[in-house]
Amino acid sequence: MHSVEANGAAIPALGLGTWTLKGRDCSALVEQALALGYRHLDTAASYGNEADVGAGLRASGVDRDAVFVTTKVWWTELAAEDFRRSAEASLTRLGVDQVDLLLVHWPNADIPLEETITALNMVRADGLTRHIGVSNFPTGLLSQAIMASEAPLVANQVENHPYLDQRKVHAACRSAGMAMVSYCPLYRGGPLFEEAAVRDAADAHGKTPAQIVLRWHVQQDGVVAIPRTTRAERLSENANIFDFALSAPEMAKISSLRQAGRRICDYDFSPDWDAP
Which of 68, 103, 145, 146 is the most exposed place for a label (fewest CB within 10 A)? Predict the structure, then answer.
């Protein structure tokens, strides 16, 4: 599996997102993904499935150190004492001694960012995680987090797909040596898969629309994609994207869809997003 180098971390370019997956279905999907060669699992305290992800990891028989595991601390747990407790609880649920990447899931304007980033660095220094980063941070907050952090941040996980212009965040990540990890990378399928830019490339390469969109992600410098699926048969489809390349015109046509400006994950606690 191809990896993105980011401030000392080697992050597999394709991971399994687990948002909404629960119970035995989650564990079985994780186990099957690892059997197929996935080496990157993404979860979060707020997903309520860390124990299920951990069970799938153990059942797979794949060596723990061979799998890049990411989890996240929820935005209400970012005060120093809460942050440490949340991180420890995540490790307990996952059944691991440390994760590979611990992220601040969302920023919280009511808790000083410096306090949160200090707490993030402390759990890294104490060995609870190998690497640290953030999620859902627009460029202004990302810059503040980078300046506040003693250890390098390795990733900013954000909603990213062809219908949303994240070029400013991408540029900020790359200038800081960070990866940009795309969640909801396939949007919601449907209308995106029917776009001529996607369908024409799919026909040209003998690939599915989903494979074309995922290839669009990983073909960009420093971008990682973590598609979620509830269907086991999609796992191998999503992973089969490293045996072809999109042409520059194909990349440009898909990228032109960004002007749609469609965002799936926007809540009352969301930060002020970067303007396109």
Answer: 146
